[in-house]
Design a protein that fits this description.
- The protein is of the alpha+beta class and 197 residues long.
- The chain has a domain of 84 residues.
- It has 6 helices and 6 strands.
- It has a 4-stranded antiparallel sheet, covered by helices on one side. Strands 5-6 form a two-stranded antiparallel sheet.
- A hairpin with a 4-residue loop joins strand 5 and strand 6.
- It comes from Panicum virgatum.
């Protein structure tokens, strides 16, 4: 992993950083390669030293990308904030002292979802050694998906605080949010639900 991070760090030296927008302590940059228009948009918060990049490398594999490193460099952040150094990349992980943080009080639901997503991706790659393992994993995910749908339906029945919106997925790249929209549950016999003319 160090080699991969080192590559990202070296590559950021070939990128330029242009400020696109400022909204209080939130700075939006376009980070492009100096010899092409290749690049990504990065949003940096000066107050809490957090960054989100459109390439989503940190969210997918847990390593900061060259775009984020360039923005840190431009903003004189020369020591990586601790939230971007995952325990699994430290020297203690190899010694067996690493225990992944479960629900810490500071961990938001979005951060937790990103952490679980990385675990799921890692598990899928492990299972790619055989068709049987992948079939078992897919069946387990389908079962969890059904259980999640049932739990969400029960939550909607208990209170109306969970919004009912159309069944689609929306992404907000700048804020690093992904929202899945759940379809409204219609109760009653199928033949009495109404027909579409």
């Amino acid at each position: 992993m160090y080699k991969e991070f080192e590559e990202e760090f070296k590559e950021q030296l070939l990128f330029s950083c242009n400020l696109l927008h400022t909204d209080g302590s939130i700075l939006t940059y376009m980070v492009t390669h100096m010899y092409s228009n290749y690049g990504a948009t990065a949003v940096f918060n000066k107050e809490d030293i957090t960054i989100t990049c459109a390439c989503r490398k940190y969210e997918s594999i847990g390593i900061l990308c060259k775009h984020a490193l360039k923005v840190f460099n431009v903003n004189d952040v020369f020591i990586l904030p601790s939230q971007y150094i995952l325990n699994r990349w430290t020297k203690y992980a190899k010694r067996g002292f690493y225990i992944e943080k479960q629900e810490s009080e500071k961990e938001s639901l979005n951060t937790r979802a990103a952490r679980i997503s990385r675990k799921a991706t890692s598990l899928a790659l492990k299972c790619s050694l055989s068709k049987e393992l992948l079939d078992d994993l897919e069946n387990a995910i389908d079962k969890l998906d059904l259980e999640a749908d049932n739990s969400i339906s029960k939550m909607q029945e208990k209170n109306d605080e969970v919004p009912l919106v159309s069944a689609s997925c929306a992404t907000d790249t700048f804020n690093g949010k992904i929202s899945f929209r759940i379809p409204k549950v219609v109760k009653g016999p199928k033949n009495k639900r109404g027909t579409i003319s």
